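Entry for the shared binder. Reason: the reviewer on the internal report wants the predicted structure included alongside the sequence.
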Amino acid sequence: MPGVHNLSVDEATREAAAARDSGVRAVILFGLPETKDELASGAYAENGVVQQAIRSIRKAVPDLVITADTCLCEYTSHGHCGVVRNGEVLNDESLELLARTAVSQAEAGADVVAPSAMMDGQVGAIREALEAGGLDHIVIMSYAVKYSSAFYGPFREAAESAPAFGDRRAYQMDPPNAREAIREAELDYSEGADILMVKPATVYLDILKAVRERFDLPLAAYHVSGEYAMIKAAAQRGWIDENRVMLETLTSIKRAGADIIITYYAREAVRALRGN
């Protein structure tokens, strides 16, 4: 995608420092390991790529809030978000690996872990593991309402994380289903999530508003790769004013109830809001 790149640890550290200097207060890290396997061992390795990046960024930019995406799909050879056996994703066996990943990220210095696998019980398993490890101060930002969306396409291509077989509809949410969103958020709320998230953002503003009205936790919205790419593509064709459309889009997400917006446009948005 224009302006978005896969970075080495040293490059990511420089980018994080530049983002903080521009006014961005938080980053979220995703990892691409050198090798992948069936049990996503790179996700919870002590010297995994995200763990290395967390330590490096923490040293270089101490006041930056570091969030780690806590999932397995980028690290599995099959591209699914959990343990697979006989062609099925096993929810309960996946929880142990997700909890190990979260603890590893927290021990490396992450302020926030963000479970995104949509496995039932993942927040509770991670909360229990963090508390057992003396890491109860770590914030859990749960991808509580994550739809099985076509808008993830550019990210999946870049991360080489598309499923090798089937799809993720068995554990991600069906786009027409609005009522399930509240049930999913209620489960994560009851299991100890500190922040709830809705993903994607702009085509689910009704869901974002419904979750905002129901829960008193901070609410995040993820303006995903496909949403970003569409604005970029239209701007490159000269069809829209990119800065105005970007700000109008992000404003709609805020207006619907988001306290936190995760977006590839973060640095551009800060510059535009400051009039730079």
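Summary line for the report: Residues 9-270 form a domain with the TIM Barrel fold (CATH 3.20.20.70).
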